[in-house]
Amino acid sequence: MKLLIVGGVAGGASAAARARRLSEDAEIVVFERGPDVSFANCGLPYYIGGEIADRDKLLVTTPERLRSRFKLDVRTQSSVEAIDRAARKVRVRNLATGQVYEESFDKLILATGAAPFRPSIPGIDLPGVFTLRNLQDTDQIKSRVNSHVKQAVLLGGGFISLELAENLARLGISTTVVEKNDQILTPFDKEMTSPIVEAMANKGVTLLLSQSAESIEQSAEGLSVCLSSGQRLTAQLVIFGIGVRPENKLAVDAGLEVGPRGGIRVNDYLQTSDPDIYAVGDAIEVNDVISGEKTQVPLAGPANRQGRIAADNVFGRSMKYRGTQGTAILGFFDRTAAMTGASEKVLRRANRPFRKVYIHPAHHAGYYPGAEGMVLKLLFDPTTGQILGAQGTGGAGVDKRIDVLAVAIQAKMTVFDLEEMELAYAPQFGSAKDPINMLGFVAGGLLRGEHPQIDLETVLADSSADKPFLLDVRTAQEFANGHIPGAVNIPVDDLRSRLQELPQDRKIAVYCQVGQRGYIATRILVQKGFSAANIGGGYKTYKLFYPAK
Amino acid sequence: MKLLIVGGVAGGASAAARARRLSEDAEIVVFERGPDVSFANCGLPYYIGGEIADRDKLLVTTPERLRSRFKLDVRTQSSVEAIDRAARKVRVRNLATGQVYEESFDKLILATGAAPFRPSIPGIDLPGVFTLRNLQDTDQIKSRVNSHVKQAVLLGGGFISLELAENLARLGISTTVVEKNDQILTPFDKEMTSPIVEAMANKGVTLLLSQSAESIEQSAEGLSVCLSSGQRLTAQLVIFGIGVRPENKLAVDAGLEVGPRGGIRVNDYLQTSDPDIYAVGDAIEVNDVISGEKTQVPLAGPANRQGRIAADNVFGRSMKYRGTQGTAILGFFDRTAAMTGASEKVLRRANRPFRKVYIHPAHHAGYYPGAEGMVLKLLFDPTTGQILGAQGTGGAGVDKRIDVLAVAIQAKMTVFDLEEMELAYAPQFGSAKDPINMLGFVAGGLLRGEHPQIDLETVLADSSADKPFLLDVRTAQEFANGHIPGAVNIPVDDLRSRLQELPQDRKIAVYCQVGQRGYIATRILVQKGFSAANIGGGYKTYKLFYPAK
Predict the structure, then answer these.
(1) CB-based contact (8 Å) between B417 and chain A?
(2) Does B423 contact chain A (CB < 8 Å)?
(3) Which of A89, A216, B25, B78 is the most exposed place for a label (fewest CB within 10 A)?
């Protein structure tokens, strides 16, 4: 067996190491265009910011280590330029010497990755304008940062841009993030990004939504970025993080199928349209396990997993890749945003029926010092209760809850299973009723009909004559501090004695601060013959949708 | 409907609140012997230590709040002394006035809890000798701590004792923990407690295993605790935390069935042997979902859940309690020990076949600063791979992994599902191959036969002539720093060139530091025709079993 692997970072390196463990005798060659293999891609922003002080930490392994430990023929600075499928060989260029040669294969794994998109706008190639993909980009950006950067402009409001924004802000660089959509972190639903937007403002990072860069010019102060709004931003550093494109040229030139967004098409075994050629990582399109649709997930976890699976299949083990459920996480200073499964946007686009709930729990028992808040959103099937997606934003403990929900999605569990989960509780770690259990109670109560709920958007969109009567059951003080326009205040503890103030012939939409008192009030009202429903997540959810009000 | 609830803390308070939400019109009376309802039981040690500064924080809710918000008839300092099942009424004593009266019921929920066991040894009733159950005990202990305690003796090495040990040590009190078994935290397997034992030593807490208190005497310096070994310990504070006994007297006197360990027997709907009487919380016996056996779990999470379910069933909702999987967690300074499902001990006792793996990962990417170590142990079915139990000890992130595994157990997932889990990865939160994935890889490799593994105990117990050849594949430096007696050192990177040094006719047991290099070495050896197996978890696991060596 002679196995060639094109690309030596996440998916390629995983495939190579796995291949050697499966076969001591196979001839395994890894071609990597750059000088490094298997570097810590996800650490690059933190090295730029100095959080990771030592560059060597970014080198997960070295070509030497792969040679000595895994007996791999690792060829860095080696670009594979063409695949001759009929002859079963590739053409390789040694970038150091310029030498071009051919190498034959029995099996080939493509792990070519994805390249950051660089728009064809004037000035894109000026010094000081970057994208961030590898250690060489990182070195250049860091070198510029260390010289004379007071202001930076980051194009794109995705994960990498926000990680860069944190790190540049830590260095005291005045940083502006420009995003062409009307929200950052587009895989999330917009309201769930509000706490991160708030954190950006608190940390002095400027955010411009619904704008994009139209040109970049040199100026006295460095660079001037001209936006679609006409606004001009001065910066000495500009980084584009507006998405990546699969590196599919090798595959396309060889006549392998690619999807509409350029991802190399593979079957469940990660075989391309040529059964002797596999492809893994950021270069391929994969199945979304929730929607069943094809998608692209340029993340390290799936890439590593796919590399392993491709090697298994090369050596006849018949392993399937399960697909992706889009689990992702961002740390931004002390804030976290994480998600798994489908977003509300995606479900709406697919016309898939769903219900949703929001809760605003603390990450551990409130009576123990240091409890941090979060918001969790759960999306589920309105008939079966199957969990379709989850998002969380807040402080500590968001990652744990999203991981738990990722497993629940994988296991095709329902909201009723969440009610029964027996999670580890001591006051430093959680609550006797963990946020996960609470999600189950709120969603289960909705589906069983014992906790009627109405979405905030439905209430606010209703301008009819018989639109719901809006009842705020918080204290007078809370009401005075801010409430949803049009609401009437009757504190929950007074409700039983003030029922005569409520309309008998109109739907009543109840809310409190986070949903708990609203639930109790709704139960009282329903049992007393009123048509009532609770606005899930209460005023805190309203503030996610309308943070400025 | 007239519902009486005996006990107003976790299970009782949850039942009462749920009952009111289900029925505005039911008459609901809660009898609580003490002055408080629904206090934060799990916070008591931290209030004693001052970590929780404000006593009011421990009052999760108050009788007044339950009355105003839930229209509950809450009667504190009210002891229910007898149940007349035929007449459907209870006899109640008002502990404040001495008045005795009867109260009728349609349904009754017993949430009487469990009492700390006080052994009948001489001196047990001396001033300064305590158990810790409620706020009154807490006040007394705190008052004594504040006056004149230099030394404390904690009997029992369970969760509460260790939490108390942390808090007393923080106060500068010289603290000794005495445990009658040969390990602390008996729900865990002994080797998994080693990191906590080490932390105790580091924090100056003395641990005496395989000893118990035989008597307590007054002495010039306060109290003298005489141990089974003859050793005497001087202390001004002695607290017994050697287990709890279900408060079943009411139930037993009323002729309700109890189990062999005293837990009130209930069916899946939490009904006692009298269908109009339910029981919840620490007072009952429950099903262990792994072993199917009856057990007792005096924890707040299950109690709350059961209270809710009992109320559901009282109001005709037919909800089942799923049983317990024994999820539990301890924080000890910056260390965590957590578990879910069955331990190895329990599986051995039940003659249930299993295999196990250990891994020693960091809680997040090693290249990002602040990564903390942990050990994870996974127990699984040797045929199907179904996960039977998991334990983790270490620093940050143990709670997350045990929660993920708790869900996997609930969903009846296998080790192969762990390989596929798509968890949230950024370098602050985890690794591209999360510790959970690694558990799956190691266990899956074992079951598929591609990663032969042998348990350390099996190797060490074998004193036969053809016992395994012990091969240490770490570096010479690591080997010199400490190794398993009898091992021969060939670093993994030299192995391919030194195969001739290995015996062809004996089993080779390979190990490295944590298992990864041992795995690679095992793969090399097996493919070269040797009979080799990896000692899972490597030298670090050896050090868990033999921490002193």
Answers:
(1) yes
(2) yes
(3) B25
- Contact B498/A at CB under 8 A: no
- Residue B69: inside a domain: yes
User: What are the pLDDT digits (tens) for A383-441?
Assistant: 999 999 999 999 999 999 999 999 999 999 999 999 999 999 999 999 999 999 999 99
Reported as a single tens digit per residue, the pLDDT across B149-175 is 999 999 999 999 999 999 999 999 999
CB atoms within 10 A of CB B315: 17
Indicate if the pLDDT at residue A300 is higher than 90. Answer: no
Asked if A425 and B338 come within 8 Å (Cβ–Cβ), the reply is no
**Structural domains of chain B, count:** 4
Contact present, B35 and A537 (Cβ < 8 Å): no
Sign of CA dihedral B20, B21, B22, B25: positive
Q: At what angle do helices A63-70 and A10-22 cross, to 10 degrees?
A: 20
Would you tell me which residues 16-55 of chain A have a C-beta closer than 8 angstroms to some C-beta of chain B?
Answer: 20-25, 40, 42-43, 46, 51-53
Q: Which residues of B touch A433 (CB under 8 A)?
A: 301, 304-305
Structural contact between residues B478 and B538, judged by C-beta atoms closer than 8 angstroms: no
Is there a contact between A241 and A130 (Cβ–Cβ < 8 Å)?
A: no
Give yes or no: residues A297 and A387 share one domain: no
Q: Among residues B1, B26, B40, B42, which one is catalytic? A: B42
- Is B121 contained in some domain? no
Distance CA A459, CA A476 (A): 22
Pick from A453, A421, A449: nearest CA to A355: A453
Q: Indicate if the pLDDT at residue B549 is higher than 70.
A: no
Tell me how many residue pairs between chain A and chain B have CB atoms under 8 A apart. 229
B463, B548 Cβ separation under 8 angstroms: no
Secondary structure, 3-state, A18-42: HHHHHCCCCEEEEECCCCCCCECHH
Residue A361, domain CATH: 3.50.50.60
Q: Which residues in chain B have their CB less than 8 angstroms from residue A46's CB?
A: 368, 427
At A11-32, the pLDDT tens digits run: 999 999 999 999 999 999 999 9
Domain boundary among B220, B242, B264: B242
Do the domain assignments include residue B322?
no
The whole domain housing B493 covers 453-545
